[in-house]
Design brief:
Shape: globular
Strand content: under 5%
Radius of gyration: 21 Å
Largest sheet: 2 strands, antiparallel
Order of helices and strands: HHHHHEE
Helix content: 40-55%
Structural class: mainly alpha
Strand order of the largest sheet: 1-2
Number of strands: 2
């Protein structure tokens, strides 16, 4: 019964991935609209070789800058989360954990399983702590609080942190590096999640 359930779950995951890959290459409704969006955003950060500006679903085919900025903000944010998730996976699987306990009942951090196993092993108090911490970041810090951001994802909020010392070219390069690392991390954490369900043994990561 367990194996049957696991196979069913994996079929669902693979079907979802296949549907996503098909959607990614779906044609846009209008060649003119696609041309418009390419012209409007071909020089944006992230539009680089070999694909250039890549919008196969035509999400910004109308050339709407506000919509593009919103989608870019979401992409940067998801990329940052994925980078943390991927590093969290390989760090804990390497045996590195927070010291001490996650609750008042003696549940140590290193006693909690990795990956999907951790979902059922984190005590309620620990889950509440994480939700409150993430909520506080979301509401108070991880956004353009005062409206002074130079670009989507700029959360300095009046601080500088050494950013102004860089030239415009260097700033653009650093933004592109973050964007690409985030894109790679989104694919990476998805790959780890799928391979964990498959029970794969992966280089550096080990048995999932």
């Amino acid at each position: 019964h367990f194996l049957t359930h696991k196979r069913t779950k994996m079929k669902f995951i693979l079907a979802a991935l296949f549907a996503g890959s098909v959607a990614a290459f779906a044609p846009t409704s209008s060649k003119f609209s696609t041309s418009t969006s390419v012209k409007a955003f071909k020089d944006e950060v992230g539009a680089q070789v070999p694909l250039g500006f890549f919008d196969p679903l035509g999400l910004v085919a109308d050339g709407n800058q506000e919509k593009f900025d919103r989608l870019r903000y979401v992409e940067v944010k998801h990329g940052r989360i994925a980078m943390l998730a991927f590093l969290g996976q390989i760090t804990t699987r390497a045996g590195v954990h927070f010291p001490g306990d996650i609750d008042n009942h003696g549940t140590s951090f290193d006693s909690i399983g990795n990956g999907f196993a951790g979902l059922g092993e984190v005590p309620v108090e620990g889950a509440q702590q994480m939700i409150c911490f993430i909520g506080a970041l979301e509401l108070l810090a991880m956004k353009d609080v005062d409206g002074t951001g130079e670009f989507p994802g700029d959360f300095r909020n009046g601080g500088d942190y050494g950013w102004s010392k860089w030239s415009d070219e260097t700033k653009r390069s650093k933004r592109a590096i973050e964007l690409n690392n985030g894109r790679a991390a989104m694919m990476g954490i998805l790959g780890l999640m799928v391979h964990e369900q498959l029970g794969s043994n992966m280089p550096l990561v080990g048995q999932l």
